[in-house]
Amino acid sequence: MEEAGDPGGLLKVIHLLALSGVWGMQMWVTFASGFLLFRALPRHTFGQVQSKLFPYYFHISVGCAFLNLCVVAPLRAWEQLTFWETSKLCLLLLSLFLAATNALWLEPRTTAAMRVMHAVEKERGLGGEVAGSLQGPDLYRQLRDKDPKYKAVRQNFFRYHGMSSLCNLGCLVSNGLCLVGLALGLRSI
Question: The pTM is what?
């Protein structure tokens, strides 16, 4: 028999699957696929692949964070929450906020800046090489030094990309801490 405030077995499974699934996806996208693709694909192809994958990635993150909040938030009266339950709700809310910021605000701006940057690079015959494959002078640095428009667009891209990366890491840490809390609460393995 379930205690008051104890979710049913199905809700526990949904919560664990959504939390571990999104965390695994975040680990893969953050630490594996991006680095592998960056070193294997031409620069502009890599950018196009990322611009197609990231909207889905961020929206799935939003959906999982929302689902987790919907499962966890109504379990107890707010004044009866333990420190861990309050922390978990705050972490899940932070994850939802950061994922939504990425999905709705940062990703579209990053992609738009990338497209403008790629157009300028393409005009100069750049973008078809794999990162790190260029020998000799850094043509991108030369372009940045000579073309103020390119320099501004590049700075804009990296500003949005940096903020997006920080939001992504915040989601990863928030979900990871929630998983640690769940693991520490297990009675047996």
Answer: 0.89
